[in-house]
Design goal:
The two termini are 24 Å apart. The chain has a 4-stranded antiparallel beta sheet, with no helix packed on it. A 4-stranded antiparallel beta sheet has the order 5-6-7-8, with no helix packed on it. It has no helices and 30 strands. It is mostly beta strands. The N terminus is likely disordered. The chain is globular.
């Protein structure tokens, strides 16, 4: 099956809805700097328009091939025909893909893509931009932050049928700016500004949202683990630390002396893992949910981000222990940390691939990384190793961001 919606290429980055239908020209297992172009490489194209949302449809691997055969990314929908639609916050809801986009007329508003056509759901701010973001699906509805031009940035809800509505004006004198939305114990939790400080709030879908506690402020990085809600909370004097809430009793600080600024909270192998500062650097930590302080994972790697569980291991972006200041994809198998591949060899900024947006799709791990072909889409599995999807041949790349899975396909900006 060879899906080819249109011929495209160009000097600009991808920025409108884009579908995948040709064999990749390059394949690498291990160090990508060792790869060589295959014969009959697909000719360079010329992009007539900036691309936006991309779809990946994976197919069977040919037995005689040494690399995975997939369909090539292609434009799914051109939201703004005279410029960039820039879709962000891609979220699946009710079997459709919802996102924030700009059609060039109404500004940034709520859009939906049904697999064929993209349409604006509602012009939330008719005099400007509603700019909906921070999406979360809760109790069969889509919640998000938006601005209607009158009430500031507040919490909104959409049921998939009726016009989106504002849930409640939490800050009547300005914007409450709800962020860090998380579903826990049958309720929706989020950070919001009440006019004096950003606190943790909870909403049951019926009554007005209520503030959980004033013992800390600026809660972020929420994660549900072992029946409790964990997050980064800030207090005067001690700064950002790990907190926990059981849904009933007041939130409490986790016993974690010297561990500050926790981020990327992720559950793996029955434990909670996160990136946090140990006083001198950011390291990978694990916590078993007891009163025992979190344990620092040994290794010289540091600054961990985009923690993602795939194939029984924890994958992430991290500064390498082998190459000075070299940011590459790594993994943790429950015992030790190792580098997946040195995509961009060398030291310093020029030797960093900066992998990001790790997303599991169709039993493979996809992410964006900077290599010899610029920032492009990469796919990885243990059998085939690392495969480069060189969407825009040349050195500039397409800079794929906002990877999201919906209806059995991988979308991206």
């Amino acid at each position: 099956m060879n899906l080819k919606l249109r011929t495209f290429r160009g000097n600009a980055r991808m920025a409108d809805l884009c579908l995948k239908g040709k064999k990749d020209n390059l394949s690498t297992q291990g160090n990508l700097n060792a790869y060589q172009p295959k014969e009959n490489r697909h000719p360079k194209f010329k992009l007539n328009k900036l691309l936006l949302l991309g779809i990946l449809c994976c197919f069977w691997m040919m037995p005689t091939m040494s690399f995975a055969q997939t369909s090539a990314p292609a434009l799914a929908y051109d939201i703004q025909t005279t410029g960039d639609g820039h879709p962000y916050y891609l979220t699946e809801f009710n079997g459709k893909l919802y996102f924030n986009a700009n059609d060039g007329t109404n500004g940034r508003e709520l859009w939906v893509y049904d697999g064929t056509t993209a349409t604006m759901v509602h012009d939330i701010n008719s005099s400007g931009e509603g700019n909906p973001r921070e999406f979360a699906v809760y109790n069969g509805k889509l919640y998000f932050k938006a601005y209607d031009g009158t009430n500031g940035n507040e919490l909104w809800v959409y049921d998939g049928v009726n016009t989106p509505t504002m849930v409640y004006d939490l800050n009547s004198s300005g914007s409450s700016s709800p962020e860090e939305l998380a579903v826990y114990n049958g309720k929706l939790y989020f950070k919001a500004y009440d006019g004096s400080s950003s606190r943790l709030w909870e909403y049951d879908g019926i009554n007005n949202p209520i503030q959980v506690s004033s013992a800390f402020h600026s809660p972020k990085e929420p994660a549900v683990y072992n029946g409790k809600l964990y997050f980064n909370g800030t207090t005067t004097g001690t700064g950002e630390e790990l907190w926990v809430y059981d849904g009933t009793n007041p939130p409490t600080k986790v016993n974690s002396p010297g561990v500050t600024r926790p981020s990327n909270l992720t559950v793996y192998n029955g434990k909670l893992y996160f990136n946090a500062r140990d006083g001198s650097n950011f390291k990978l930590w694990e916590y078993d949910g007891t009163n025992t302080p979190p344990t620092k994972i040994s290794g010289s790697q540091h600054n961990f981000s985009y923690l993602t569980v795939y194939d029984g291991q924890l994958y992430f972006s991290a500064h390498s222990s082998t190459y000075s200041n070299d940011v590459e994809p790594h993994r943790f198998d429950g015992t030790s940390i190792s580098m997946v591949a040195n995509i961009q060899s060398g030291n310093g900024i020029q030797g960093c691939s900066y992998p990001r947006y790790f997303t599991v799709y169709n039993n493979k791990l996809y992410f964006s990384a900077k290599g010899p072909s610029g920032r492009e889409l990469y796919e990885y599995d243990v059998t085939n190793g690392l495969v480069l999807h060189d969407i825009n041949p040349g050195w500039q790349g397409t800079d794929p961001v906002e990877l999201a899975v919906a209806n059995g396909k991988l979308y991206f900006n």
